[in-house]
Amino acid sequence: MIEQPPDTEEILGQFNRLVRELLRGQTHRNTFVPWEVELLLDIENCHLRESTKEGILLHYQKAVQRRMNRGASSPMKLSKYLGREL
User: Which of 19, 25, 35, 57 matches a 20 to 30 Å C-alpha distance to 67?
Assistant: First the structure.
């Protein structure tokens, strides 16, 4: 049986889960899909200050939700959201 690619709602759900884990400061899993790894590396490379990290991640999450609800097929990188493509 051929596995279907995840739909936008499923990807958005996974993205929201990832952001929640980042905001809590811990993950309880050790398996990530490739686009999650890409986002995690991008977030790490943005070098966010701890004092502003939570607010930035919340605004980023809302921006991704808006874009995906308008038809984007995957979450944009944080660096793109911040206007500094890495």
Answer: 25
List the structure tokens of 74.
């995957």
Cα(26)–Cα(20) distance, integer angstroms: 9
Q: In this structure, is residue 51 part of a structural domain?
A: yes
Query: Does 74 reside within a domain?
Result: yes
User: What spatial distance separates the first Cα and last Cα of the chain, rounded to whole Å?
Assistant: 38
pLDDT at 34: 95
Per-residue buried b or exposed e for 11-26, using 16+ beta carbons within 10 Å of the residue's own CB: bbebbeebbeebeeee
In a domain, 56, yes or no: yes
Mean pLDDT computed over 20-49: 93
**Mean pLDDT lowest for which of 29-33, 38-42, 81-85?**
81-85
Flag whether 1 is in a domain.
no
Count: domains in the chain = 1
